[in-house]
Every structure is written in C-alpha cells, then in structure tokens.
Amino acid sequence: MSKLSAQDIETKLLRFPDWEYFDDAIHAEFEFDNFRDCFSAMSRIAFECEALNHHPNWSNVYNVLTISLSTHDANGVTDKDFKLAEAIEAIVEPVDE
Amino acid sequence: MSKLSAQDIETKLLRFPDWEYFDDAIHAEFEFDNFRDCFSAMSRIAFECEALNHHPNWSNVYNVLTISLSTHDANGVTDKDFKLAEAIEAIVEPVDE
Predict the structure, then answer these.
(1) CA-to-CA distance for A51 and A45, rounded, in angstroms?
(2) Alpha-carbon distance B32 to nearest alpha carbon in chain A (angstroms)
(3) Which residues contact A51 (CB under 8 A, 6 or more apart)?
(4) What is the average per-residue pLDDT within B85-93?
(5) A12 near A85, Cβ under 8 Å?
(6) Which CATH number fits domain B6-61+73-92: 3.30.1360.20, 3.40.1130.10, 3.10.129.10, 3.40.50.620?
(7) What is the pTM of this model?
(8) Is the dihedral angle over the CA atoms A85, A87, A92, A94 positive or is it negative?
(9) Which of A18, A71, A88, B22 has the lowest CB atom count within 10 Å?
(10) Angstrom distance (rounded) from CA A81 to CA A72
(11) Beta-sheet strand order (sheet of B20-22)
(12) pLDDT class for B1, splitting at 50, 70, 90?
C-alpha cells in the first residue's frame, strides 16, 4: 500500500467534503445529538475498522467525534484511509434512498 | 459540584496511581492487547458515563486509550471526576478476588 501524493489526496477529497488533508493524514469532525448517538456511531465504526484491519486516531468529547486517518506503514495517506473514510461516511451520514 | 483544590486532588490521586493531575484535569493512559480489547473497555466505560451523566475527553489509537476527566461546569476537577475514574479503574483493571 503506497503513500498517495498530495495532489491525489486532494482530488479524492472532492468526494469527501467532510474531510481535510493536513499533517500527512485526513481529518474529519462529526457532531451528533448526544453522547449515546456519538458512541453508537463509534461502535459501528469500530466494527468496520476490524473488518478492514485499519484503525483511526480518534477522539470524543460528549457529542463530538474527531477522526484522523493515516497509514503508519506508508507514513502518509493511502487508499486504505479512503476505504475507511468511505465506511465511516456511510455510518455517520446515511443517505435516504 | 464544586472544584477541588490542587491539594485535595493530589491526596485523592494517591488511591489512583494510573492518574495524573495537570491542566485542570486528571489524565490516564491505558494499554490493551489490541483494538478489540481496547474498544470493548471503551464500550463498558461509555455505559458508566451515561449512568453517571458525566463524560470524558478521550482518544484512542489502536490498543491505547487516553482519558482526561474534568467537570466543565466547575472549570476543574470535582468528585464527579473521581467517581468516573473509579468506575473506569474497575473496568480496565479488574481485581481478581
């Protein structure tokens, strides 16, 4: 899994408006109604992390969840991070169809 | 719920060797075997937080959980923080009896 260039990352981020690229990682902050809703989303994300064998650097304060994704072995952002970001988006912002 | 003095906090911390006091909060870091074990502990802690209606500022990276406790309304550390710290200790370091 090789590190993506800054330009590749910015191009991919066009599809991920909640995410920003800085400090060799992609970052997002999500706000929920309360702690329960926030931790419920974290639990669902945790299962995705295990399924993808890729784990975030994340923080929570009450209803706010902050997530940073990078690939340690590649020393930067890789497709693994975007795969996890996509799974996270599907959890935190389900699209009604 | 009134803010405890630095001296009261240090005295109370004698019973909590995993915790340190700085920046108007008490802080601890716990290491687990892997992400699953770490997130399992977080889930149990989340239930205690809801039961106590008191929530941490916490971060996770793979098998490491970092927790900071303070009481926003009191602008410092109160007995609520020690109550939650005690509940956390019971989860992360169960004593075999």
Answers:
(1) 10
(2) 14
(3) none
(4) 94
(5) no
(6) 3.30.1360.20
(7) 0.94
(8) positive
(9) B22
(10) 11
(11) A20-22, A25-31, A64-69, A57-61, B57-61, B64-69, B25-31, B20-22
(12) confident
**Contacts with B61 from chain A: Cβ below 8 Å:** 55-57
At B29-85, the pLDDT tens digits run: 999 999 999 999 999 999 999 999 999 999 999 999 999 999 999 999 999 999 999
Q: Supply the pLDDT for residue A1.
A: 79
For A37-53, write each residue's pLDDT tens digit.
999 999 999 999 999 99
Query: Residue A55 is nearest to which of B49, B57, B62, comparing CB atoms?
Result: B62
Task: From chain B, pick out residues whose CB is under 8 angstroms from the CB of A58.
Answer: 59-60
Question: How many angstroms away from the CA of A97 is the closest CA of chain B?
Answer: 31
CB B49 within 8 A of CB B55: yes
Beta bridge partners of A68: A27, A57
Beta-carbon separation of A59 and B57 below 8 A: yes
Interface mutation vs chain A, best among B57, B66, B68, most A CBs within 10 Å: B57
Rounded to an integer, what distance in angstroms lies between the CA atom of residue B60 and that of residue B76?
23
Q: Amino acid letter at B17?
A: P
Is the ipTM value over 0.90, yes or no?
yes
Closest CA to B42 of A56, A13, A89: A56
